[in-house]
Here is the input.
Amino acid sequence: MTNMITILTGAGISAESGLGTFRDEGGLWAQHRIEDVATPEGFMRDPELVHGFYNARRAQAADAVPNAAHVALAKLEAGFDGEVLIVTQNVDGLHEAAGSQNVLHMHGQLDSALCAACERRWPAPLVMQPSDACPHCEAKATRPDIVWFGEMPYGMHSIEDALARTTLFASIGTSGNVYPAAGFVAQARQLGCPTIELNMEASQGGSLFDTRRLGPASEVVPAWVEELLSA
Ligand code: BV8
Here is the structure.
């Protein structure tokens, strides 16, 4: 069995790059109701509000730079004797900007736009608005290419396949509140795969991890990667 590390990342890995998390003090869900900005119903009700929410985050993400944790994971992918897959809940592009290539955005991406009519995608402009027409079918049905609550996350078959093959499962910077991502650690455990959590504090499913490294991602992730690469 070839070595494979599957790494789930959440908003906490991008926090030190200046991008807000959701459930920390003053986080995104303290500023907006999830029902209003991260559900299909909210988008139907007020597309202007939802585009505004994602336009602001797209602009912020465009100015953000990868931090030492993103860089360390790219170094792991380049130097590890086996496969490294990052399954990220994040919609920013910081893993790719740091050099990671094997990245799966299960909740979508800010820099991608989707047509709800013809389901084609294209690079998102910095500012999207309800009056935009799809460049392919011209329908005024464009939306952020984001997985909202109640919608099926992307790449679930690939993720299930990865979890079945993985020899180490790591979770970095996520509170373990949102499913199905929060259930991956239980799946890995059932398959007898060692699990580790690297986070500022123990997450919801924290007790399910074999080991835990608590602290800022920019410190605990590079140290963990150094250990893996020198093992
Ligand atoms: C699905 C959009 C099924 C992108 C997001 C009732 C009705 C409907 C659904 C449900 C329901 N009950 C349960 C569900 C399922 C639901 C769910 O889980 N709800 C929860 C709230 C109970 N899930 C879904 O709806 C999912 N879809 O189930 O579909 C289905 C089946 C068949 C057919 C169709 C559908 C879809 C979930 C995706 C929703 N979209 N966001 C965006 O706007 O960004 S979720 C949102 O939360 C983000 O994607 C985010 O990534 C995700 C998780 O949050 P975290 O990343 O963990 O961030 P958080 O702030 O919570 O935590 C940060 C952590 O970092 C903390 O632990 C903190 O300590 C740590 N930290 C902070 N700073 C640092 C740090 N760590 C290290 N260093 C630091 N410096």
Q: What stands out?
A: The longest strand covers residues 108-115. The radius of gyration is 18 Å. The longest helix spans residues 47-63. The beta strands are 4-9, 83-88, 103-105, 108-115, 121-123, 142-146, 168-172, 195-199, 211-214.
